[in-house]
Amino acid sequence: xxxxxxxxxxxxxxxxxxxxxxxxxxxxxxxxxxxxxxxxxxxxxxxxxxxxxxxxxxxxxxxxxxxxxxxxxxxxxxxxxxxxxxxxxxxxxxxxxxxxxxxxxxxxxxxxxxxxxxxxxxxxxxxxxxxxxxxxxxxxxxxxxxxxxxxxxxxxxxxxxxxxxxxxxxxxxxxxxxxxxxxxxxxxxxxxxxxxxxxxxxxxxxxxxxxxxxxxxxxxxxxxxxxxxxxxxxxxxxxxxxxxxxxxxxxxxxxxxxxxxxxxxxxxxxxxxxxxxxxxxxxxxxxxxxxxxxxxxxx
Length: 299
Known about the structure:
CATH superfamily of the domain at 15-27 and 50-200: Acetylglutamate kinase-like
Order of helices and strands: EHEHHEEEHEEEHEEEHEEEEHHEHE
């Protein structure tokens, strides 16, 4: 099969961990080990999150006295694609013996997207309420609750196209594992003089669904740190949803900052003609590819 995998940010940095290179690389090695059996049997295109990393770079940029103004988020997103892409291709090539390529990818968005004025995308570390409020006041951030903590939110426009799609196809057809559209891709929009960067971070799950539809993938795997989507999450009545249609899932409500985008991406892919999508734990990647674990979404 041709499979697109969306690797959640937890695969690189768990909540509360310091963002040290060694810690993230250790997580990447574990992710590569889990994905290696899938990559040996199928065509594999991989996307990844960058929320903690792009937020960290934004903090460093804001604090740098040598800069007259911080780097914009499109530039920071490109930086994270290079860093995380390097870790992933090296680990995947070592684990599988197959060539692996990380492709700097630009994602087309609309310059007039209303989402640009309504920040929703979590970036950076988790704070308590008092620290989040203080930073918001000092730096002009917008913050929102994320689980038991608070995080910065930035604009997250809808992905409508991939500039590097022909290159993704060429590399894939040459037999390479392709890592692309990391962090949702670098957001760019068309203007009078061509493409220009947009100050935003695109949701990686939505971009993964777009990638999967664009390359005619058979399956989309959304890998995270839970076994399956839960109905009634956080309540005593919570139960795992093992198989569902898009109609069934869209009739329910899921947390906007975590499972909601994954459910939406799975449905977008299936509604666009994909065979199935699966949401579940990274360590069950082989079973998810077989449709025997996690939450399997079919039309």
